[in-house]
Design a protein that fits this description.
Oligomer: single chain
Radius of gyration: 18 Å
Distance between the termini: 55 Å
Structural class: mainly alpha
Largest sheet: none
Helix content: over 70%
């Protein structure tokens, strides 16, 4: 691995373990076995390092979500595909998922939240579009698709957080249970 790749990997591990604000540039450089000027050469700053890390890691998640969020007349099937996309990505990238979850729940004024919020917005819009596309078949979704997108993504993220902490397994049974439980709420009232 080259110094740039090592810095990205070390930063990911440290940010996932202690949060973005809990880690300093000196610590990242030392853990990567490089000097601070080397880090600055590649990324310009700690914020630049975070941008590069999020660009590298977040885009595959957004692509997976966008690919799974298509509506083809089967809302339960689409929701199951979405849940699998999230769960599969989290299983493949647990440190990144933990890191970005922590950043999304950081204060709005923080550098971390500002960097991750726009990337998460892309997911939110893809899932809201799924619900909007299903309105023709499920009229009671009309006007509530943005709320449903937030609730569904929140449910999936909560399951992933539970998995990251050893409380549940991200398996097909959980996909089925989460989707069915969610559907009971959206089809009523």
């Amino acid at each position: 691995m080259d110094n740039q790749s090592i810095l990205l990997q070390v930063a990911l591990e440290l940010f996932a373990a202690r949060g973005y604000d809990g880690v300093g540039v000196q610590e990242i450089a030392e853990a990567a076995g490089v000097t601070k000027p080397t880090l600055y050469h590649y990324f310009g700053s700690k914020a630049g390092l975070l941008t590069a890390l999020l660009d590298e890691q977040h885009e595959p998640l957004n692509r997976a979500v966008a690919g799974a969020a298509g509506y083809h007349g089967d809302l339960p099937g689409a929701l199951e595909a979405l849940a699998r996309a999230y769960f599969d990505f989290a299983r493949a990238h647990p440190a990144f998922y933990r890191m970005q979850l922590g950043m999304y729940f950081a204060p709005r004024e923080s550098e971390a939240w500002q960097q991750v919020a726009g990337r998460n917005e892309q997911q939110y819009q893809a899932v809201a579009h799924l619900f909007a596309s299903a309105v023709g078949d499920h009229g009671n979704l009309s006007g509530r698709q943005e709320l449903f997108a937030a609730i569904f993504i929140g449910s999936l993220n909560n399951c992933i957080a539970l998995w990251l902490n050893g409380r549940v397994d991200l398996n097909d049974e959980l996909v089925y249970r989460v989707v069915r439980q969610f559907q009971y709420g959206i089809y009523s009232g």
